[in-house]
Each structure stands twice: as C-alpha cells, then as structure tokens.
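Re: folding output
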Amino acid sequence: MREKEQYLEKNRHGSAVFPVEYYDCVYPAGLAGLPVHWHEEFEITYVRGGECTYLIDLEPVPVREGDFLFLASGVLHGIPEGKTRFLETDSFVFHPEMLGVRGDVCRTRYLLPAERGEIRFPAVIRGETAEPLKTVFDRLKQSFLAKAFGYELEVKALLLQEMALLYRLVPFERKSPENRQVVEKLKTVLQYIREHYQQPVTVGELAELCHFSEYYFMRFFKQYMNMTCVEYLNQYRLEIAAGELAESGESVTEIALNAGFNNLSYFNRVFKRSFGMTPREYRKQFRLRSC
C-alpha cells in the first residue's frame, strides 16, 4: 500500500522545500485494516472506486466511489479490520506551511485554525459539492505528474484553490474542548504503541498514560476505537510484519520477533485470521503480484 507519535505517521511527504506528495493506492477486498494514525500534513483523498468504512476522528464513516475526504492536521484516521470491499484512491498529502507565508492572512485566518484542530470540515464531501473540488483535483494531479517547468507554482496555486473551495462550499464546525481532550489522550496512547510495539506492552502501561484505571481505560479505548487495545496492538504489529514480508528477505521468524510477536505459532494464527492466509502464502502472493 503506497502511503505525537505512534499514530503520528513519520513518513516524509515530498521534500523539505516542497512538502507535497501524490499517492495512487489500491486496497484489496478483505484488507486486514489500516491502523488508525495521524500526521501533521493535510490530506485530500478522492475515491476512484470501491467502498469502505473509515474511522475518522473516532467516528465510523462509510465512503464510496466519487467521495472526497479532507483530513486536516491531527485528524485520527484509518480503516478498521474487515471494513474494506475493494478501494482505489488518489491522495495528495501536503504540509499546510507550504501554502502560506508565516503571519499572512491566508495562514492565520484559514490554515492555522484547521491545522490546530479548532475547526473541522465534514469527513466526507460528495454530490454537487464535490464536483468543483474534483475539477481542481484533476488539474492538480495532471500538473503534479507531468512536472512541466514551473509545476510547483501551479501545484501550490491549485492546493490553495482547493482550500478556498472547501471554505466557500463546505460547512465546517468548531470542535468542542471535550472532543479535543479525548483525541489527545488517544494520540498519546498511539504514540506510545508506535514507539514500543517491539516490546511487551501492558494494558496498565497504556492506562497510566491517560491517568485511568485499567478497567476504565479498556472501556474508553473500546468505545472510541471500536476495538480493544490488545486488538489494536496486534493489528499495528501485523501491518509492520506484512510490510516486511513484502519488502524484506528476512525469515518469517525474524519478522515476527521484530514486530513484537514472541510466539511464532500465535503470530501465524493471528496473521492468517487477519489476512486470510499464512505469512509465507502472503509473501508468495505479494511477490507474484509484483512480477
């Protein structure tokens, strides 16, 4: 799949001087799940085909062909396990700083409120409202891929145009302090998992990060993430392992240990339950597909 801090995605999108990247993604039916994460960049995604249910800002959101998603900085998002029925998307991920000079009206009035999470646009934009966004998006994609001389100026201008259309056409809301507090607690937990997934992680450790009892934390996590913290930890480790199976030549045992699974038979069992095949079958199928 071509795509603060466990949930903080650490991939650099674009370069330091031009922080924007385009992604053409295909998610197969029965995808084990895309772990919930967040990043500092803004993301605009167009659904070319298929359908699935995202988890966005703690809410399940069905998406289908023709939909647009706008995800500002810090928005938790992912695809829960078993919620994909094939999905093709085009995405641009870009840092908001590239769109405004520090202190100018564009940054202070429009970009910073979205970047700080003070406002939120609807998770999904569709119908007549999406048509102008699609027109600009198509020009943006064409310019970025063609890379004609001066394309950087055009890409920046078109991203600004998309932002202007969002503010002009799409109703937005200001997030409540209570919602922001819940999101921040979950970000802290997800960051910890990202940093410690290779080690044993206990419910007690995660609960302590939120200053909750273990019992209350387990209910809290399940309520907002639609899975237990143990299920999430396994899902995250499985995504790490699946990437290594596809890209590295290490043995299945080494990959399982590096992903935080200390029991190979347990790893094989949960991998097959999530992906519908054994790790070795997954590696073989992925390499055949890449040939």
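--- second protein (sequence, then structure) ---
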Amino acid sequence: MEQLKQKILSEGIVLPGNVLKVDSFLNHQIDPVLVMAMGEELARRFADAVIDRVLTVEASGIAIGLAAAYALGVPLVFAKKSKSVLMTEDAYTAAVYSYTKKVTNQISVLKRFLPSGESVLIVDDFLANGEASLGLAELVHQASSSVAGVGIAVDKAFQPGHDRLLHAGYRLESLAVIESLDGGRVHFRE
C-alpha cells in the first residue's frame, strides 16, 4: 500500500535491534485517514473470503482492527493482555511473547465474544516473529472456528514471523512488507 509506505519513509524511525518506530501515525498517535484507508485495503484484499469477525490484540492492533472490521461490516474483538477483575466468565487464553517489549503476556478473549463455527480475520499492526498472530490463531482454534487469514499493516519479512505464518498454512496479506532495515534505512520488498 503506497500511502503507508510513504508514511513509513517520511515518519518512521529505525532503531537498533531491527525496530521500526511508527508511533507518530500508527501505534501511539494515530493518523485516522491512513488507518481507515488501511482497513479498506484489508477489506478489499479479503473480499473473496467469508469473514464473521475481526480479532486483534490490545492495544496497537485495535485501530487497524477497527478500521478493517468497519470496512467489512463485522464486529471487532480484541484479546486482552491482562485479566481484569471484571473478566469472571470463561475465556480462551494463549501465551504470547512480545518482540518489542520482551515480555510474555497471557492474552485472553471471553468465550462469548469468540463463538464457535465462525471465520475470523486476524489483524495486527506489526509482524515480526509471529507470536501475536499465532497466539490469536490459537484462540480461534480453541473456539472451534477457522482463521480466514491474517492482515498486517507492517510486515518485517526479514524476521521469522512472515514465514512462520505461511508455513502454518495461513493466508497472509501485508500492506507494507519490509525486506530489511539495513543501514538504518527502510528497504521494502517489491
């Protein structure tokens, strides 16, 4: 998606450790026009799939997940990273390691928000090692539903997540695929 690539080039900051900082428009401050366009693009790419709901993980995936769900006309549900005292009902859970935060979270979704027999689109802001997407897929499978695909805003394809999702058999649609961050610069896959 050219609009996203240009935003990454103009505002993205490459940090040591193969980290791309996009907090000025995607995961701290949000550019609503760009995020809505990303949701529309994901809906276009998955127009041939049956999708009953969109699933993401808090917090950075919520904006793009909402935009995709809105464009698809389906509900959005997000996995919580910590259990609150209000979560007294049965929930699906999975352990997910965060590449940028270097912590493992026990993500969870209440069972009533992830019904069985549905086709679920997983959406997230970044794909690095694939832990979040695979953890969300695990929740979908626990619910006896199927994964329609995985939609990603920024895919760091030089890290193992891209190949892990493809090898697991998931359809992957990424709006910006980064080949490398060598030399402190963003190099996109064409």
